[in-house]
Amino acid sequence: MTAIRPVIEANRRGKREQIIDAAKQVLARDGLAACTARAVADASPLTKSAVHYYFDDIHQIVDLAMREHVTAMVTGLRHAADGVPDPAEKLWAVVDAYLATFAAQPNAAFLWFEYWIDTSRRQSADARRNPPLSGQVRRRNAPWVCHEQPFSVLRRAAGDPRISL
User: Fold this and answer.
1) Res 133: pLDDT
2) Ranges of the chain with pLDDT below 70
3) CA-to-CA distance for 10 and 47, rounded, in angstroms?
4) pTM (predicted TM-score)
């Protein structure tokens, strides 16, 4: 029986990854408001019931999908900074990569701002309903919410504390 458990867990992880990948597609193509359980199911080989089985709610899916979007962006910015020894040149390499990303994907900037606003609103609502948990929610989502301004993403991507924006 114990040999079956890893297979089940691997299958579960695989299904969750399919759902997150589908959500990333829906978010990039249609935006936050269009990212529903139905839209995610339609973009994946799974059913809407499966989406609800593997995740508590659409916000959990969106949070994970956006985390992957932001992680990919930061990774790209760090890659742009790699091998550039001069801090000023490093900053401009990161800025160029940042701007090129949004030039190639104009909806991405709107999606980020839309997501930051939505997350901030959800945190405010959570804080009103359950004040002791609000700090935990803020800390858990801290890198992905509205107080994470684009310039701090650039600063982190540049990886150089001497660069101050």
Assistant:
1) 43
2) 1-3, 126-165
3) 19
4) 0.72
Q: Where are the domains of the chain?
A: 4-158
pLDDT of residue 8: 80
Neighbours of 106 (CB within 10 A): 9
Dihedrals phi, psi of 160, to nearest 5 degrees: -125, 115
Position 109 scores a pLDDT of 86
**Using the 8-state DSSP alphabet, how is residue 52 labeled?**
H
DSSP labels, the chain: -TTHHHHHHHHHHHHHHHHHHHHHHHHHHH-STT--HHHHHHTSSS-HHHHHHH-S-HHHHHHHHHHHHHHHHHHHHHHHHTT--SHHHHHHHHHHHHHHHHHH-HHHHHHHHHHHHHHHHHHHHHHHH-HHHHHHHHHHHGGGSTTS-HHHHHHHHHT-TT---
Which CATH superfamily is 4-158 part of?
Tetracycline Repressor, domain 2 (1.10.357.10)
Closest by alpha carbon to 22, among 5, 43, 38? 43
